[in-house]
Automatic annotation (TrEMBL):
Keywords: ATP-binding, Cell membrane, Membrane, Metal-binding, Nucleotide-binding, Translocase, Transmembrane, Transmembrane helix
Assigned protein family: Belongs to the cation transport ATPase (P-type) (TC 3.A.3) family. Type IB subfamily.
Portion of the full sequence shown: 300 to 586 of 640
Record's GO cellular component terms: plasma membrane
Species for this entry: Brumimicrobium salinarum
Gene Ontology biological-process entries: copper ion export; copper ion homeostasis
Protein name (Swiss-Prot/TrEMBL): Heavy metal translocating P-type ATPase
Amino acid sequence: AIPLVASISTSISAQNGLLIRNRTAFESSRKISTIVFDKTGTLTKGSHEITRIVSLHSDYTETELLTYAAAVESPSEHHIAKGLARKAKEDKLDIPSVTDFKYTAGVGVNGKVNGKEVHAGGNMLLEKMNETVDKDEKEGVETKVFTFVEGELIGFITFADEIRESSFDAIKTLHDHNIKASLLTGDNEIVAKDVADKLGLDDYMAEVLPDQKLEKIKELQAQDEFVAMVGDGVNDAPALAQADVGIAIGSGTDVAAETADIVLMDSDPKDIVNLILFGKATYQKMV
Ligand code: ADP
Ligand code: MG
């Protein structure tokens, strides 16, 4: 049976841009009871269109805020960075270069722009910088990026992302097969809850750091769940390694791909589900 199975999975590999790095893990996919999804770029499109640019500092206009944010984000591969770059180009802005760029997983980025230290990131950065903003400034189903210059909060930019059409079907199919689906995201609580509610997920956790993603997988395993994790980012790598079946997707980072058992070239959640069901059907009989 092995050569046949090997040839089948090799041929779907060729068709679907699929790389099985750990065959044993793939063969165990029949046991999966829970799939944990990363949100951004997995269940959602990662489209990140800018919806608002809000200056909170009298010395900085909205254009300057956008310029600093786009500059410090320019080396980043995150959807947020791509959204900023698109908008800056549209507005024909001159974006200065950044030096000493650093990315902190789950928090954001920082670097020197025009000789000034600039930070950009979400709620976790806000906490780290000991800043708060008014509750209604924080509310709304949006991903927010706060920007700091020389340690001072100068404003924030909001992004809208869309749930992929195929995510709805994918989650429904999993439920039909008695597989639970949950969400682990570094994004804020409001966005996470919105996606979880709309897709009817069994569970979600927001504002999680990479080690917390890992801990959550361990927790599920301790509850006798056989866990698949799907992710694309640097912040997903520890969790992908811990999961019983780690699946890296799409345009994701190399770090994610190198830790995963399975790599899928495109990021369609439906393909992930089909792959798992294929694994289930194929290896069911082989125990
Ligand atoms: P997830 O894929 O789990 O949703 P992300 O990789 O998007 O997590 O990162 C989680 C959070 O960290 C983001 O929602 C954002 O607040 C912050 N973050 C990550 N990368 C950046 C970046 N390049 N610029 C600003 N914030 C970032
Ligand atoms: Mg991600």
